[in-house]
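Record 1 of the preview.
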Amino acid sequence: MPAIVALVFGSLYGWNGLDPAVGIIGGIVIARWSWGLIRDAGGVLLDYVPADEGLPAEIRGAIEVGGDATIDLHIWRLGQGHHGAIISVQTPDPRPAGFYKAKPADNHDLSHVTVDVQAA
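->
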């Protein structure tokens, strides 16, 4: 719509630079929008979890009790406020995977958890 208005005013009043100026402004708006889209989509594709969320530390804190160690932790975003996690636990006293899966269950950000248990 602004481009059409610029064309009309340029035609009626001889303001020949108005249409290119509106085009440049439109290009800047689209470039800012596309950079935000690339940044957000890239974060999802690369399984980025912001450091200020603290989700990895919460999961490690829940799992690493009594000699149990988290040897591999992979977290990814499933949707707004939902994360999935794959946790590999090394322990001297192996228990069923459900035992370790229940430990971070009180964290409402986790919607899907897979646990792998390995004996130390």
